Amino acid sequence: MKRILCLLLALVLLTPAVFAEGEDLTFRMESAYGNVGDTVTVTASVQNAPVCASYRVIFTYDTAALEVVEGKNVDTAGLFIINVNATYDGQKAVNALSADAKKVIEGDMELFTVTFKIISETEGTEGALLKIVHEEFFGADLTRMTPAIEEARIYVGDDGTAPDETPNETPDETPGETPTETPDDSTGEPTDDPVTDAPAEDTPTEEESKKPTGSWAVDEKNEEIIHVEEDGTTTTYVPEFPEDLQTNVPTKIPLKTEEGKDAGSITVEKDEEGSITVIEQELKSPTAEEPGAPGRIEWPVVLGVAGVLLSAALIALLVWFIAKKKRGEHHE
Q: In order of start, what are the domains of the chain with their CATH numbers?
């Protein structure tokens, strides 16, 4: 477990290490083709890889044309996690990382897949770029290797390019018919609709507030779970997994801090291959007024101290009274 945590820490904090040549190591993402409304899957793989104990890859995508459906592990061994709701420099991104004490990858392997839904045509014929913004591969001794990168694009259209006729037909029909009909039928309504719709887009829904942030990783025995924020902050939680975690069934898992305090919960789902994915999170921030926190009056402590002082005063008064009485008897 300590070995895995070390590897994850190296991935998160980008620990400086001696760079290997890595001229033959290649990380590749295959391009895909489809039409609006289709789902397409992109496969990430490596070629000529030496023995790697951990890796991390982050790529951004065109959110105007693509929507992430899911990400899955393929051949990566050991601890693997993929966060399809990550962000990088303010852009939506996919963050995949894996670590194992022995071996994660070697030779030619498919690492993971990401499935997208095409929601819009792309501008021009270049397709939607899946831009790799961060990549790192580490050997068992934490030596970092630099692979050659082959990025992918998702093309819209049967032949891999956007059709030339479709853009011309759509503007002719839409602007000609829609604007003339809408103002004539309802002159007051169009003015109100944008006003009521705009706040709804800016206000995050309850589902959006529960979306996982950063990356989550579970150890082999399900005894610890690690949360890595996008800024590199790492937090370790103690989860309360059920003895039998069912496949493809969302399950709410209570979390505690390493000190045993309530830290909220996460909702996870296990696939057929045994990989656990966090689909919701409800974390609790540490409260400002915890027992013993500065500035908070602990009344049980105050009353206890007052009781001790009062008892001491009564004992002193009793001793003084007995001594005085004895002195009076002595004089008589």
A: 2-162 (2.60.40.680), 215-283 (no CATH)
- Please write the tens of the pLDDT for every residue from 277-320: 888 899 987 554 444 444 445 566 667 777 788 888 888 888 88
Cβ-based burial of 11 (10 A; exposed 0-12, middle 13-18, buried ≥19): buried
Full DSSP string of 89-114: TTEEEEEEEEE-SS-SEEEEEEEEEE
> CA-to-CA distance for 314 and 320, rounded, in angstroms?
10
Per-residue HEC secondary structure of 229-259 comes to CCCCCEEEEEECCCCCCCECCCEEEEEECCC
* DSSP-derived pairing of the beta strands 91-99 and 79-88: antiparallel
Beta bridge partners of 310: none
pTM, 2 dp: 0.48
Cβ-in-10-Å burial (0-12, 13-18, 19+) of 290 comes to exposed
